[in-house]
Amino acid sequence: MGNIKIAIQKSGRLNEDSLKILKDCGISIDNGKDQLKALARNFPLEVFYLRNGDIPQYLRDGVVDIAIIGENVLVEKGKEIEIVEKLGFSKCRVSLAVPKGFDYKGIQDLKGKRIASSYPNTVQQYMSSRGVEADLHIINGSVEIAPNIGLADAICDIVSSGSTLFKNNLKEVEVMLKSEAVLAVSPKIKEGQKETLEALRFRIRSVLAARQSKYVLMNAPNDKIEAIIEILPGMRSPTVLPLAEKGWSSIHTVINKDKFWEVIDELKRAGAEGILVCPIEKMVL
Ligand SMILES: Nc1ncnc2c1ncn2[C@@H]1O[C@H](COP(=O)(O)OP(=O)(O)OP(=O)(O)O)[C@@H](O)[C@H]1O
Ligand SMILES: O=P(O)(O)OC[C@H]1O[C@H](OP(=O)(O)OP(=O)(O)O)[C@H](O)[C@@H]1O
Ligand SMILES: [Mg+2]
Questions:
Q1: Which of 14, 38, 246, 252 could form a disulfide with 239 if both were Cys (CB 3.0 to 4.6 A apart)?
Q2: What fold does the segment set 213-279 form as a domain?
Q3: Does the pLDDT value for residue 180 go beyond 70?
Q4: Separation of 53 CA from ligand 1 center, angstroms?
Q5: pLDDT band at 79 (very low <50, low <70, confident <90, very high)
Q6: Percent above pLDDT 90 for the chain
């Protein structure tokens, strides 16, 4: 398989989870402190530690073949770059916010207003597709402070819990896009490298599916099995194994981790006992 170069964020919100997903894919990386480049020991992968904001350009130029990057950065700077996997972490939205006292009724209220943002293309496109012109001020960080220091009437920035907006006396008024970390591919990737990319994607999908699921085991009297199976939102038909105690069985299945709490009471009412919920390390689909 051809060697591929992957860019991940050097430091910041994506760094740790990006390294973690590679590790969960069974890829060991020798990364010493302050190293900008590292080789994987057991997979044809070279890791480049870069600024998130610089990655679209490196992908475009083919300096790196693939990258783990925030989708919001691609929307801003790399619309033509292909996203091949959504990775389920660093979930956030890019939103417009105004001071709490602003009587906001709709996007038209921002006509001619000063908007501070690190995402000028995203804002520009959102506003102009709605026929609204505003006065954009590009700033690189601490955007939420802009209205308080008289620099802007509104802002556009990343929102996750909303606590930064809250602390700065702002309210979210338009969600322009939803974002998460993604695996993106350079348009210049070569044929010989696609096999390695597919092998990596296969591993990533197995890791993500496992993160989303739980292995659930429970015991039940045989006459309750049918009712219990009705409740279980399993992958396929659950496994039913006889217990040493006559007339009892053990039921095993895989369920989506978010669904589990929805059905737990129902399962107990239907007669399930000794319910165990276990993590799954990999799930090959
Ligand atoms: N509060 C947040 N909650 C969840 N995800 C976030 C949050 N803030 C940022 N992100 C996501 O993480 C990415 C990296 O954010 P971070 O603040 O670490 O880097 P940055 O300063 O934008 O980039 P650079 O690496 O270029 O310095 C963002 O592009 C976004 O996708
Ligand atoms: O809704 P919240 O949960 O408060 O998250 C949103 C904040 O998180 C990000 O900043 P970060 O902490 O990454 O700092 P930065 O501006 O230095 O990148 C983003 O720029 C917002 O300011
Ligand atoms: Mg940030």
A1: 252
A2: Alpha-Beta Plaits (3.30.70)
A3: yes
A4: 9
A5: confident
A6: 89
Segment 224-245, tens digit of pLDDT: 999 999 998 766 789 999 999 9
Does residue 144's CB lie within 6 angstroms of at least one atom of ligand 2? yes
pLDDT digits (tens, 9 = 90+) for 190-212: 999 999 999 999 999 999 999 99
CB 130 within 8 A of CB 107: yes
Give domain limits for the chain: 4-89+180-189, 92-179, 213-279
pTM for this predicted structure: 0.92
Instruction: Judge if the beta carbon of residue 72 lies within 6 A of ligand 1.
Output: yes
Residues 6+ apart with CB under 8 A from 77: 53, 56, 57, 121
AA letter at 252 = H
Which residues lie below 8 Å from residue 258, measured CB to CB, with a gap of 6+?
none
Best mutation site among 19, 158, 168 for ligand 1 pocket (most ligand atoms within 8 Å of CB)? 158
6 token code pair? 């992957």
What CATH number should be reported for the domain whose range is 4-89+180-189? Answer: 3.40.190.10
In this structure, are residues 65 and 5 in contact, taking their beta carbons and an 8 Å threshold? yes
Contact 148, 169 (CB under 8 A): yes
Other Cβ atoms closer than 10 A to 135: 13
Indicate whether residue 88 lines ligand 1 (CB < 6 A): no
Select the CATH number that applies to the domain covering 92-179 from these four: 3.30.559.10, 3.40.190.10, 3.10.150.10, 2.70.50.60: 3.40.190.10
